[in-house]
Specification:
Mean pLDDT: 91
Distance between the termini: 51 Å
Helix content: over 70%
Shape: globular
Structural class: mainly alpha
Low-confidence stretches: none
Largest sheet: 2 strands, antiparallel
Length: 342
């Protein structure tokens, strides 16, 4: 526990320092983001701060390496490659097909290397042949990685969710089994939250630096792997993780579906998510980020707790978590042409 706390503090501090250094040298690094028609900011702002999260997160990952060094090193390597692709893409756009192909391969490699598929299949209630199960998991994981990236569009939003989800998972796991407090996997979750918080100190509205694809794709990848691991270990149920991700899944999916129905190129950048529409309507990133935090704490976390306490009602509670969020996203204007937003 002492070593876990120590490494967690280092992860948070390292993330803050690395983000600050990138902010200070942003011009030299060529990571100044100039506003355009699809931006939610109006002044040139440093980007690439997610590298700080990657550094802090990598330090946190070293905790788990004590139990399974080779497998965890494989996950670490895959996550660093995803982050490097994201950082390069921020500076020199990479075709979407190449990015997605890399995400599929890297996530599949990470699952094969670290996630026990047989226990996971039992926990998911999916007694499928392992190639089919692997394919479904990779598809879901790549979708999550990219929707997390989609949701990184205003100050503080994605980083706040990256602090909430691991800490919520820790609270839910300890509520069910207090003896887990010394498990390295638990401190891996806490260290990831600490790294995200270190970055958030400079990304809180009004942001001095943005996360960029390096940070958002890395976070999506690591959160997905941790979700699969904690499910296979029996710490959390799949329904609990589905509920914890509900605000991001809802906004991204409703936006994607509405744009697809309008026959738009869904891989093109835009600012049509519900959170972006609200930020323009309220003329405030901070209010939207605070709304997300409130939804997470007041609505999402209690439902996730009950879903673990009453496992037989997991699907019903998940529906209950998503239904009002879907309505809120549609009312806010997720995926609607900007001219139609109120």
């Amino acid at each position: 526990m002492v070593s876990g706390l120590f490494i967690t503090l280092i992860a948070g501090f390292a993330a803050f320092v690395a983000t600050w250094l990138i902010l200070r040298h942003a011009q030299h690094l060529g990571v100044i983001q100039i506003p355009n028609a699809r931006s939610s900011h109006s002044v040139p702002t440093a980007s690439g701060g997610g590298v700080g999260i990657v550094i802090g997160g990598a330090i946190g990952t070293s905790l788990a390496a004590f139990q399974a060094p080779l497998q965890i090193l494989l996950v670490l390597a895959a996550s660093l490659v995803i982050a490097a692709i994201g950082f390069y893409d921020d500076r020199t756009p990479i075709p979407a097909g190449y990015r997605l192909g890399a995400h599929f391969v890297l996530f599949a490699v990470a699952i094969i290397g670290v996630v026990p598929l047989s226990p996971l299949a039992d926990e998911l209630g999916l007694p499928l042949p392992w190639p089919l199960l692997l394919g479904l998991l990779v598809l879901a994981g790549v979708y999550w990685i990219n929707l997390f990236n989609f949701m990184d569009g205003i100050d503080g939003l994605a980083a706040s969710q990256a602090v909430f989800m691991p800490l919520a998972a820790v609270a839910l796991a300890l509520a069910a089994a207090p003896g887990l407090v010394g498990h390295p996997g638990l401190w891996w979750l806490i260290a990831l939250a600490a790294a995200s918080l270190g970055f958030l100190c400079l990304n809180w509205p009004p942001a001095r630096i943005f996360m960029g694809d390096a940070g958002s794709t890395y976070l999506g990848f690591i959160i997905a792997i941790l979700a699969l691991l904690t499910i296979s270990w029996g710490w959390l149920t799949p329904w609990q993780w589905a509920i914890l991700g509900a605000p991001f899944v809802t906004d991204a999916t409703v936006t994607l579906l509405r744009r697809a129905l309008q026959r738009e190129k869904i891989v093109e950048a835009h600012r049509r998510h519900a959170y972006q529409a609200l930020a323009r309507r309220w003329n405030s990133h901070r209010l939207v980020t605070l709304l997300l935090i409130a939804i997470d704490v007041v609505w999402v976390l209690p439902l996730a707790f009950v879903a673990g306490w009453q496992e037989g009602f997991g699907s019903l509670l998940t529906f209950l978590a998503y239904a009002p969020l879907v309505v809120m996203a549609i009312v806010a204007g997720a995926g609607a042409p900007e001219a139609e937003k109120l």
